[in-house]
Structures are given as C-alpha cells and as structure tokens.
Amino acid sequence: MTKSMNNFVVSGKKSDFHLPKNFKITLIVLVLLLIASIAASLFFGAKAVSMQDLIDGLFYSDRDSHGANIVRKRVSRTIFALLCGTALGVAGALMQAVTRNPLADPSILGVNTGASLFVVFGIAYLNITSANQYIWFALAGAALTAIFVFGIGSLGRGGATPIKLVLAGAATTAALSSLVTAIMIPSTYAMDQFRFWQIGSVGSGTWDNIMTFIPFLLVGLGIALLTAPALNALALGDEVASSLGVHPSSLRFGAAFGGVLLCGAATALAGPIGFIGLLATHVMRLILGPDLRFVIPMSALAGAIILTISDCIGRLLGSPGELEVGIVTAFIGAPILILLAKKSKVRSL
Amino acid sequence: MKSELTNFHFIRAGMQKRRRRWLFVTAVLTISACLLCCLMLMLGNTIYPVNEVVRSLFGEQIQGVTFAVNTIRFPRMLAGVFAGFAFGVGGYIFQTMLRNPLANPNVLGITSGSSVAAVFCITVLHTSNAVVSVASVGAGLATVLVMYVLSKGKTFSIGRLILIGIGIQAMLDAFISYLLLLSAQQDISAALLWLSGSLNGVQLSELPPLMLTVLGLTPIAALYGKQLNMLELGEQTASSLGVATNKTRLVLIVWAVFLVAVATATTGPIAFISFLAGPIANRLVDIGASNIIPAGLVGANIVLIADLIGQFAFEYRFPVGVITGLIGAPYLIYLLIKMNRKGEL
Fold first, then answer.
1. What beta strand segments (E) does B123-222 contain?
2. Which of residues 153-212 of A touch B (CB under 8 A)?
3. Which of A71, A105, A344, B231 has the smallest number of CB atoms closer than 10 Å to its CB?
4. pTM above 0.90, yes or no
5. Tens digits of pLDDT across chain B (345 residues)
C-alpha cells in the first residue's frame, strides 16, 4: 500500500503517472451518463416537449414556439446544475482530503448553514438583493463556519475524528439555523426573499448567475488540481508529507480555501444543496482508489451528473411545480452516510 | 466491626442527604413551574390580576377575561407544561440509558419520525388529533426500530448510533419537505407553524392525548427509576444487581418514545428541551438519584420561560421553539467542546 502510494505521491515525473485500473472504463461510463443526464434535463420537466421543440430551441434561435422557449430556459438551468454539481463534488473531495475524514461534506459540516445565515442577515439588515452581493456574504459565512467547526472538531485527543467533526457540524447547524429562523420570522420581506433560496434549487440558473459563478468555479478548480498531488502526500500523515517536501498547514489552508470557495459560491447562487460531495467522492474513491489526482476530476464529473439527474427527478416528482434538488439529494445522499457509519470500524469513529 | 458500623452510618447519612436534596429540588421546581403558569395566565395583550383569572377559570363569565384566559392562555399553558415535562423525561431516559448527554430523541431521529407522521396526517389525511398522536407514536417506535437494526453491530458504538441518526434525520426532513410540496396552500401554513414548535393556537380539545399519556405513564418512574440508574452503571453491573436489563430497556424506550411522540404531535418539535432538561436536572440534584421527575419539571420550566420570553421580550412574538433553539444550541456547542477536551468522544 505504502509503496504504491509513494509512486503517485508528489508526482513530478511522468513515469510515476499510472492510471488507476478502472480509469478508462469509468471515464467512458461517466461521459455517457453526463450526456444522458443533459439530454434528460433538457427533455423532461413539468411540461413535455417534442423532439421538434428540442431541436428548435437548441439550434434555431429564430424559431419561436412555446416548447422551444421552454427548452431554452432549460438550457441555462442545465448548465447551472452541471456547474454547481462540479463545484460541490470537488468541494467535497477537497474537504475530505484536508480533514482526512471520509464524512466531510459542506452540508454535514454546517458550512451551508453558515452561508445561509450570512445571506439572510444581509437580506434582512443590509438590503442586499442581487446574486453578486449574495456570493460575498455566503463566502464569508462559509469560511467562518468551516474554521469554527473544524476548530471545535479537532479539540482534544486524536484530532478531528469523523464523529467529532460531524457532531460539531450538526451542533453548529442547529445553532445557526435557529438564528436564521429568528432573523427571518419578524421580517416578512426577508422571509419572502429567503424562502426561495433556503431549499437548494437550480431553478435560479439564469445566464447572469452562471456568469457570476464561473470565475469562482475556475479558481476553485485550479486550486483543487494544483493541490491534488500534495494532498496525496498529506494522506500519509503530516510527518511523511513534510519529509516529502510538503508544508502541511499551508497546504491545508490552501486546499480548504478552494473547497470553501467552491461550495460557498454554489450555495450563494443555488441555496444549500447537501450530500453531493459525499456521494460523488465516495463512489469515485471506491472505483478508482485513493489517488486524488484522479478522484478530484472524476468527482467533478460525478457531482455534475448527480446534481443534474437529481434535478430531473425533482422536476418529474414535483410536477406541476418542482421538488427542489436539495431535497432529492438529501434523500439519495443520506443513505450513503448511514452506510458509511455502518461500515466504518468503531475505532475510527 | 466498628468501622463497618461507621461506614454504614456514613452511607446512610449520604443517602438521606441526597434524598433531602431530591425533595428540595423537586419542590422548588414544582413551585417555580406553578408561578410560571400563573404568569402565563396573567400576561398577554392585557394583564389580568390573579383573582379575575381564578374566577374566570372557575366558570364565572367576566367580560373579556373569560375568552382570553379560558380559551387562549389556559390551553397554551397546559400544552407548555405537559409537553415540556414529556420532552424532559423522554430526553433524560435516553441520555441516561445510552450514557451520553448527546443521545436524545432529536439526535436519534425519533422526533423527525414523529414529525413525518404528523405532517402526513395534517396535510394529506386531514385526520383528528387523536389519530395524529397514534400515528406519531407508531412512527416514533418504527424509527427506534430502524435505528436499532441499523446500529446493531458486533459492538455497540454511540458514535455510530449518532451518525446513523443524523443520516435518518436528513432523509426524514427531506420527506417532510416533499409532503409540504404536495399539500394545499392552507395546510402548509398549519404544518409550518406546527413544525417550528409552537404553543400558538393550541386548543383545549387537542390536549387530552398528551395529558393522559403524561399522567398515566408517570407512575412508571417510581417502578423503573432505580433500574434506569443501575443500567447506567453498565450491562453487567446492572444484571448482577438484579435488573432484568432487556425488559427494563424495552419498557423505558417505549415509554420515552410515547412521551416524546405524543408531545411532538401536540406542539410540534420544540427544539432542545429533551437535550437540556436531563443535564440540568443532574446538576441540580445529584447523579445517582433517580432524576426522571426533576428532569420533567426542568423541561416544563424551560418551555414556560422560553414561551414567556418569546411572547414578551421582543417586539415580535417568536414561537417557543425558536427561543429554545437559541438557548439550547450554544449549550450543545459548549458541551461538545468540553467533551472533546476530555477526550470523551
């Protein structure tokens, strides 16, 4: 194990670059799933569209029919879902690597609720109204909450064990969400604004929001890909990592910053969506092994697929309205958490 | 021989001291709950003096007072007292039995299970209150069963139990959101009010299930209180002290679920009562005494205080669940920090 890990740790040389066994087949399957999910997302929804509408909406911008317009709406929504899924998948992988904790996920660690609190505070007291403003509040809230939760979770012997982190996250979520309620109840205006945002939904996927999102996504992804090799070293323990030329604490800070950036931005625009990171990263690690240089990009892909398909399911189940995607992902993702808790050894909890 | 005798006296003196302390604390908690009840009846948009309140409760018709006190404030007060007691006792039983202050009906998903059933009854089936109570008890017991099956391993781990509880809660909450989406607009507001844990608009006719459950089942405390304390010493010690551990555990769990589920069906999940009451009662009395009744009284006190704060401390009236959440959550974080420092997790 250690020997094979040393092979991919701190990879500078090309000769170290071994593709995991199932990499190619996984990549092919994921790409096919991605195409299928995009098609499903364009095609299915509260209103059925015909093939002709689909073609009109996608390729002939001058043809104006009801169905074609619906398809055009769905295009931006689908792109937004893909981007959010990517961000959340990578954020989950980064956080799990940084905390060396299989249960780290923005929603479980309370980071989403932190972002929510800052946004609702901004809406209620500082009169923020646009996505451009939400995003900074959400980022600040996400970052502070991440620091707080990790601080509490890593107190005492053994550092940040999974159970300590999850409990710290759950407690912080409880505390912050009662604050959210307390701010929201007296202000009908904030309640109205916030209600749509509070349950994660990609219905807010407009081109404006996509444009706001892209810079954050690119920076976050860049950080993730750059830190992946060093994070592999970190998985072997701080001492080994230092001896391999990695500076553990600055690496942690950098990678955590990337994770918070990604999930904070996604939360700001779509609202809190849980369990994507947990789901995507775990499935990918199960298939590909622990090498983050592959797990991170594939988690991005998997996250995008899961979120887009969940959104489709939500639209079909909730018809004629929609079942927000945050609800669907919780329903799919929570069993994974239960499974992980069941499987892991008592000692490691 | 002599030293044995002094030992015996020493132990007896200690027992008597603890017994006195238990009686004293219970009395104080009862008195303060009664005072808070009076405040609940007197305070409101208009403040009525005690004699008018009492006269109207005994059936005299007084202009204005009768409606406000008998129809609005009295049911609200009763709901607060009984729900607080039920949540307090339920939480204490789980915390003591699992030997961990974090293990309470909220964390274990029981409250969420009951909530799902209640929301389903309110929004889809439109059933009567009694049916809502029965359904939430059933759902609460089912949740316990699922938790038990899922967390059963070669060895028991409280950490695993809590993690599974969090997962189950996430799923059940998602299901509640789905039910809310399906339901009609006028049912949604009723369900939302209920979900935040509120004493608003509780009617006298809704209370009998809760009151009967609490009053009817409290005598179990006298029968099983000691056994619960022995269970806390560990499986082996308890059975060597003559406790039928499995039977005791079953009785206690069913009892606690009954209390929590019926209270949840009546007032909605009032946050953190089941979590706060036990540790406070243990602090007030001593650990080692059977603190079931004190824990229930502490629960009732907290609910009444929080409801008074929610009604009158701010410009806006907050439901009681928001206030208890604001009080309870920081305590939870404090407790975690303390447990982490000591390495108890």
1. none
2. 153, 155-158, 161-164, 166-168, 170-172, 174-179, 181-182, 185-186, 199
3. A344
4. no
5. 556 667 777 778 877 887 888 888 889 999 999 999 888 888 877 788 888 888 888 877 877 778 888 888 888 899 999 999 999 999 998 888 888 888 788 878 888 898 898 888 878 877 777 788 888 889 988 998 888 888 776 666 777 888 888 888 888 888 888 887 777 667 766 677 777 778 887 888 888 888 888 888 888 877 787 778 777 777 778 778 877 777 888 888 888 888 998 888 888 888 789 888 988 888 888 766 678 889 999 999 999 999 999 888 887 788 888 888 888 888 888 888 888 887 766
Q: Is residue A9 part of a domain?
A: no
Q: Which residues contact A116 (CB under 8 A, 6 or more apart)?
A: A138, A141, A176, A177, A180, A197, A198, A267, A271, A272
Q: Is the Cβ of A104 closer than 8 Å to some Cβ of chain B?
A: no
| Interface confidence (ipTM) of the complex | 0.77
Distance CA A322, CA A311 (A): 9
- Distance CA(B129)–CA(B117), nearest Å, equals 12
The DSSP symbol for B59 reads: T
List the domains of chain B with CATH numbers.
84-342 (1.10.3470.10)
Instruction: Domain count for chain A, please give it.
Output: 1
Partner-chain contact B341 A156, CB within 8 Å = yes
Distance CA A290, CA A259 (A): 18
Residues of A in contact with B345 (CB under 8 A): 156, 161, 163-164, 167
**Distance from B159 to chain A by nearest Cα, in Å?**
6
